[in-house]
């Protein structure tokens, strides 16, 4: 809402920095809330229901912006976009601050007994709920944990192509030969692909939890689809505008791969401090990727942007490598712990594992912990 008040580069830069500063906590905070309120089995569908709103924004955001652009009275037209969406975000934030509890034990809409049940039901995650003490040993453990850096690399790879599906979408669709209105309404199918992919993927990962390693399968299939789309963007001739457009729509599968990785943090990282640090590093990678992505759109290559499409393809390949490596690491670690549990009859029982989780042990320290694949 303050963007229209900016009149020079310094003002815009400061405003954007502050926006990023306060916005940076939204997704990591949601991941933490997910792990406090829902069991590991329930998390994928809930998280995808939250994340699929990006698809709704893609479908209708451009059209709303196009409609607002036809306002011919009052302020400059571009200001209305920021004022309308900024006001909506502000009101939504106020309601969230008022209605959304940070812990099940503090939920005013639950009775005392229901609060106890809400805490007890997530104990099976073997992660506890929340710990007020910041533990430095968990910070160092996160820094040494291969999962942390695989998630970091995966986030960079996922977000390098992101600018093509957000900020530069209208320019890309326009480069295929469509007019201004066409660049807006032809984003609707891409948004629909993202919306439906996220919900269907979340349903599959929840419905078939524990079967065919559903979360990682969803991530891998989604990323292979993105690789196909990016490869077609690189390889198809400029004259094949509909083929290139469908290829761009296929790249909207990327939302499922990235958002499902957030369940890796919510379900497979234990220790409250470690979960915060891992989530922060993952979203640092997210930011790095979003910084790199726009630099691949060279004005000298307009309207072809061949380097940008190659960067998209490379990003998806890097992301796939990180996903597969993370899956294999967790899979073999589970197998190792299962063997150790059989060999050592005094190893932690399920009850011990739950109690250790409530004591804020990390997934590495808690030998009764098993990764959800």
TrEMBL record:
Main location: membrane
This protein's GO CC annotations: membrane
Localization (cell): Membrane
Membrane-related topology note: Multi-pass membrane protein
Record field: transmembrane: 17-38, 50-72, 78-100, 185-205, 217-236, 242-265, 277-297, 309-329
Record's keyword terms, sorted: Membrane, Transmembrane, Transmembrane helix, Transport
Major facilitator superfamily (MFS) profile domain: residues covered: 1-333
One term of GO molecular function: transmembrane transporter activity
Entry protein name: Major facilitator superfamily (MFS) profile domain-containing protein
Lineage, top ranks: Eukaryota, Fungi, Dikarya, Ascomycota, Pezizomycotina
